[in-house]
Amino acid sequence: MDEKRLSRRDFLKFSAGATAAAVLAACAPPAPAAKPEEKAPVEATPVSEVTTIHHLSIWSNETFAGTIALFEEMNPDLKVENEQLSWNAFFEQVQVRLAAGSPEPDTLAVDVPLTAPYGYRGWLLPLDDVFTEKEKADWLESSLQAGTYEGHLISAPVSTSTQLLFYNRNAFEKAGIEPPGEDERWTWEKLAEVAKELTFDEDGDGTPEMWGFIWEQVIRIYQLQPMPMSLGGVPIGPDGLTVRGYIDADPWIEAFTYYWKAFNEWKFAPQGDIGWPSDTLFRPGKLAMELAGPWNIKQNVDGDLDFEWGVSRHPYFENGVVVTPTGSWHIGVNANTKKIDAATRWVRFFSTVPGAEKWWRTGSHDFPAQESLLELIKTDPQFEEWPWRAERIAADEAMVNPQPRPVTPGYLEYEEILGDTFSDIRNGADVKEALNTAVERIEAEMEKYRK
């Protein structure tokens, strides 16, 4: 199942009394599996009683097998029972069970931007005292920040994400343009000039056979937030509620004027329903460049593409700074669990080494949120040769000024409204008017959280 195809706007809405449904996890970059360094077996000691931890997630028991086996080997008095639910059912059941005060699940996967909404409702147990300072220091600062609500860590970082500029080398050769190097970072201004040259409409029917560029998550704040932030913009006020004076400020207007031009003036990016562009445009050879997640590395390899492809770094504005997106899955403890000690031991294992490494290598293959493991990717011989060297580039990029999405109890409303706004701009709406309308809508939604 490819969660990247799904839009949060089709899923969970945290309006009062709303029925929850599934939410797209930010990003989950798969890495090729490798054999981890085997730890010395832990000799099990007889225990009189075994406590079973009920964990709720979207992953299968097969995916969890290696990680749970290692945990139970190291903790013979504990057993983990994973309950896998479908996307929709998972988010529905999180809301139904936790809102009802159920003691189960004991632990659960947490899509990181939902940390604040869950925290606002008191659904997650504070984890500040569960981890050592050394363990906390190993997490990416952006991941730690995203897992914190009102000064308390309530979701422990497990995975992270980033974005790379993927390109079709054959398209560059056809246009006689040198593609960017693996460690080269183009400006948005240069990207636009090149994208125009790489847009080919050879039969003159008005629909290019080759488009110049597009964003993989074309109307999602995760993907687009780095643009205004590169120009000094801020996605939300320090109170986590106010957007007036922030998303209608000059950096946002400038960034989304560029976005508007990509579709409406320069026309190197396609409008309309294009599905998931990595599948519908890039891999079929109809797209020259795409800003996309490193999960595409494995998909490109497995897809046996009929063109050569490469990657480079996330763009930035000429007079701005480099900003990259981040965020993925965390893990939390149900505030009503009756097994606090067992649950926190599992959460600590799962979000620190060696548990996090086992999960990365043999479980989800999502990029780890631990700096020590990202450094491992940068030095592991497995990632020296192309195409897996792209994983190493992504691991380094994940640590280059990553900025999490806003920590706000109204995140789902915020994201949904901005998704509508970006869609309108993409299809020709006036940028200032669209952003001003978004301000009014978001401010109205945030009122219920101010009381």
In words, what does this structure look like?
The protein is α/β, with parallel strands linked by helices. The protein has two domains: 3-161 and 327-403, 3-Layer(aba) Sandwich (D-Maltodextrin-Binding Protein, domain 2), CATH 3.40.190.10; 164-325 and 410-450, Periplasmic binding protein-like II (D-Maltodextrin-Binding Protein, domain 2, 3-Layer(aba) Sandwich). The strands form four sheets. It has a five-stranded mixed β-sheet with strand order 2-1-3-12-6. A four-stranded mixed β-sheet has the order 8-9-7-10. Helix 1 (61-74) links the parallel strand 1 (51-57) and strand 2. It is built from 18 helices and 13 strands.
Task: Describe this protein with a few key phrases.
451 residues; alpha/beta; D-Maltodextrin-Binding Protein, domain 2; five-stranded mixed beta sheet; four-stranded mixed beta sheet; globular; disordered N terminus
Q: How do you describe this structure in short?
A:
The protein has 451 residues and is an alpha/beta fold.
